[in-house]
Specification:
Helix content is 49%, strand content 18%. By secondary structure, the protein is an alpha+beta fold.
């Protein structure tokens, strides 16, 4: 079985929550589709499928048979290097099977061209070219204008649909205006002659009815034709959506009026009502579409960040190329003030780079040789030369866009109730409308009065507001998060974050930088070697340490020998503390030996054989386990720990020789981020493998309680998830913040895992939330964003439920039954007023969600 693929497809024609359910149901019927989730707010469906069982084309065909449209683009790629029919099959198989987002690819051997149908946004021509080249063939460079035009296929399709609907609306407005002019002028003349009391006996003369029917018919069957088509497709799919209600309501008034006009009944006609119903709802839907388009503004902004061209070194010359033609390994030149075209590593030059558009951090970041840069960020000052590492869909920006789109396509748990109600909403409303009609007839009302009540109930009910309440807020909220460098893996993470009660912070890499430096070597003879590392030690301890030795530091013979043995033993270690010792030795010019034997003791340290000596390097537990006498160095260890330094014991041939002090640096913003979490009323804890004394010293520097309520010390990496589980068993909703690597089990165990990202590392599979900038202040921003988003969703749901609960009984005439003495304009809700209310109820929900765009999440 091939690995499952996940792809997000734009869909044209979603008008309500029932449409979303219909698409999901039909997509899941395709053999090989594991899951399908529609986001009504963004009008996209996320499909998980097995490419070995089905094709993307089969899924799209099924959705289109259900009555919806998937925007696609087509591009011709001139292929070089094909010599036979097998080459044709290889290229077709490569594009069809190995490039997600390609619907269908056909290669013509005679013309040496591949015609590819694909989903814009899911794949780019550059991705296709790269796949073909990996298969061993070449592609003639693509015209950048052609590539750009295909990239906008979804936007073009949506814009064309808006223009089509606008034309229909203009026709509806024109004829409805004429109908209103004739109807209201005739009504004014009638009331002038006969008086207001005769209104109940008022009817149009036959010639007026014929004129109104002639004018109402284009509105009914041109402007309103989409509602008939939508209703037919919905019923064909064994469901009922908003189109069914609109088509029923408008048809009842129109065809009843036709029956009156041809002389089968003597009653007033309601052609102006049917025309106004369709026109008002069309206005509302157009406004809703435009408003929904704004909910995805953040994604459009991210897409717009992509550089269009890149200056690349080729054959000794610098040339400008479309960014899609940059290949991994290319040398790219970035001049001051230019966007960095692709992800890469700096190979020449130095500069400061503005990464705020991706991380939300306003201060530029200094970049020198060896540093990583992210595509779409802005080079501020110097000239940089970089080696491209990630291009096309592998770039950090592409990953961010993909993650945000997939997250926006997921469903939040809070949406489940709205979905259940929406599934039965329309049948319930139709039943209620028929019941209303029957009750009023039985109560002695005229047929016309009962019919008006029925139409009003059909039109006042609005399933769309229910369907839009959650997804529109989620789309806007996640977009806001992406703009601040906060990525949500799914809607559930965004929903649950506001319920967190306890935040557990891993120390290394989260509170601290994870880049420790050796500061002290205290040997057994009580000789002290303290290394000066002003920048790191100042951040670690909050004060400058005196330079006890001149620079460069002359090592005492005992220290020199011990550093040689310690660094040699740690050569095979990947632990940050071991790497700090190796880097210190290398900086001092100490030669290293290759250990003859090496053993990593989990949670304790290392044991190695170096130059014939048995070397132990680790924590106190390792010394105790190997029965090593401490020779009075415990007090030295205590002093170092009181200075917030991690200590490592060193024994050679069974005899303790030294205690090494290593200090990690506190990240800028850690103390401020913890203070912000406390301000939100959260319990904040630190978890670390350090001993309690060192852990408490670090905790005090960042404003945490040093007792067990604030510090979980001496916790092995494998035991962190158990500590999270213990807190959960105590009834706490726990968020775990870590680097996403060593903390993966704990992140998965927590109710919400928050991974501290490092620029390009955005796909943290075990975390529900990723903070790209690596700044701890982002945790409070993520929780604050969850709070305001959930508040907006609850407001939306309250409006959607209250609207229907209050207005449907009014439309059914309940006030008139309870208080018959009410004036006629209070006793009877006109169908046109019901249509107006329904049309604007959805706009209210979308508009409320859009308010999230102006919310400040950096303030509580």
């Amino acid at each position: 079985m091939a690995s499952p693929q996940k792809i997000t497809l734009p869909v044209i024609g979603i008008t309500c929550a029932n449409c979303a359910a219909t698409i999901e149901r039909n997509a899941k019927k395709v053999n090989g589709v594991d899951d399908a989730v529609v986001n009504f707010g963004s009008e996209k469906v996320t499909i998980s499928y097995d490419p070995a069982t089905t094709t993307l084309n089969s899924v799209i065909e099924r959705i289109e048979r259900a009555g919806y449209q998937i925007p696609v683009a087509t591009i011709d790629l001139p292929i070089t290097g094909m010599t036979c029919a097998n080459c044709v099959s290889t290229v077709e198989r490569t594009l069809n099977k190995k490039v997600p987002g390609v619907i269908e690819a056909a290669v013509n051997f005679a013309t040496e061209k591949a015609t590819v149908r694909y989903i814009p946004g899911a794949v780019t021509p550059a991705d296709m070219v790269a796949a073909i080249e990996r298969a061993g063939y070449g592609v003639v460079p693509i015209d950048p204008q052609a590539e750009h035009s295909t990239r906008d296929a979804e936007q073009v399709a949506r814009q064309e649909e808006i223009q089509r609907q606008t034309r229909k609306l203009m026709v509806g407005l024109f004829f409805t205006g004429l109908i209103g002019f004739i109807a209201h002028n005739w009504l004014f003349l009638f009331l002038t002659v006969y008086g207001f009391d005769s209104l109940d006996n008022w009817v149009y003369p036959p010639w007026v009815n014929w004129a109104l029917m002639l004018l109402a018919t284009p509105v009914q069957f041109y402007t309103g034709w989409d509602y008939y088509v939508g209703a037919y497709k919905s019923l064909r799919n064994r469901s009922a959506n908003m189109d069914v209600l609109v088509a029923l309501g408008a048809s009842v008034t129109y065809f009843y009026s036709v029956i009156v006009t041809v002389g089968l009944l003597n009653s007033p006609t309601y052609f102006e009502t049917s025309a106004i119903i369709i026109t008002l709802i069309k206005i509302g839907k157009l406004l809703e579409v435009r408003a929904k388009g704004k909910t995805g503004a953040a994604i459009k902004t991210l897409i717009g960040l992509q550089a269009k061209t890149a200056r690349v070194e080729r054959d000794g010359a610098e040339i400008d190329l479309p960014v899609g033609q940059v290949q991994t390994g290319d040398t790219v030149i970035i001049r001051p003030g230019e966007k960095i075209a692709v992800d890469g590593i700096v190979t020449g030059g130095a500069s400061s780079v503005d990464e705020s558009m991706l991380t939300g951090e306003s201060l530029p970041v200094d970049k020198v040789v060896g540093d990583t840069v992210i595509g779409a960020t802005l080079n501020k000052q110097g000239r940089l030369k970089i080696r491209a590492t990630n291009v096309g869909q592998a770039s950090a920006l592409a990953q961010i866009i993909r993650l945000v789109e997939q997250a926006q396509g997921s469903k939040a748990p809070i949406q489940a109730l709205a979905d259940k109600i929406a599934a039965i909403f329309v049948p319930m409303v139709i039943s209620l409308a028929l019941l209303t009609f029957a009750v009023w007839l039985l109560s002695g009302a005229t047929f016309t009065t009962a019919l008006i009540r029925l139409v009003a109930v059909l039109l006042i009910a609005c399933p769309c507001a229910l369907g839009l309440a959650t997804p529109t807020a989620m789309v806007v909220g996640m977009g806001q998060g992406a703009a601040q460098g906060i990525l949500f893996r799914n809607s559930a993470a965004l929903e649950l974050a506001h319920k967190l009660q306890t935040i557990v912070l891993d120390k290394t890499g989260t509170i601290t930088t994870g880049q420790p430096a050796v500061t002290d070597i205290i040997v057994r003879q009580n000789l002290e070697f303290r290394m000066k590392n002003e920048e790191k030690v100042e951040q670690a301890n909050g004060q400058n340490l005196p330079a006890l030795l001149p620079s460069p530091f002359p090592l005492l013979p005992s220290s020199f020998s011990l550093l040689h043995l310690a660094a040699s033993a740690e050569r095979g270690s990947e632990h940050p503390l071991g790497q700090a010792i190796v880097e210190t030795a290398q900086a001092q010019g100490v030669s290293l030996s290759e250990p003859a034997a090496f053993e990593a003791v989990a949670g304790q340290g290392v044991a190695a054989e170096v130059d014939g000596h048995q070397v132990l390097l680790g924590n106190l537990r390792l010394m105790e386990q190997r029965s090593v006498q401490l020779d009075g160095l415990v007090s030295a260890e205590q002093r170092l720990q009181n200075e917030a330094k991690t200590t490592m014991w060193m024994a050679v041939d069974g005899q303790v020789e030294a205690v090494i002090g290593i200090a990690d640096t506190i990240k800028a913003g850690s103390a401020e981020g913890i203070a912000a979490l406390k301000k939100l009323g959260l319990r904040v804890m630190m978890i670390t493998g350090d001993n309690r004394t060192t852990a408490q010293a670090i905790a005090r520097q960042v404003g945490l309680a040093g007792d067990e309520d604030g510090v979980l010390a001496q916790v092995l990496p494998a035991d962190k998830s158990q500590q999270i589980a213990r807190l959960q068993q105590a009834g706490q909703t726990v968020g775990m913040v870590g680097d996403g690597i060593n903390d993966a089990p704990a992140l998965a165990q927590a109710d919400v895992g928050l991974a501290i990202g490092t620029g390009t590392d955005v796909a943290m599979e075990t975390a529900g939330i990723t903070l790209i900038s690596g700044d701890l202040r982002g945790v409070s921003k993520a929780i604050r964003l969850s709070q305001v988003t959930m508040r907006t969703i609850k407001q939306n749901l309250f409006w959607a439920f209250a609207y229907n609960v209050v207005l449907i009984p009014i439309a059914a005439g309940l006030p008139a039954l309870l208080w018959p003495e009410l004036p006629i304009y209070l006793r009877q809700l006109h169908p046109a007023a019901a249509a107006l209310a329904m049309a604007f109820s959805s706009i209210m929900v979308v508009g409320n969600s859009l308010r999230l765009q102006g919310v400040r999440i950096d303030k509580s």
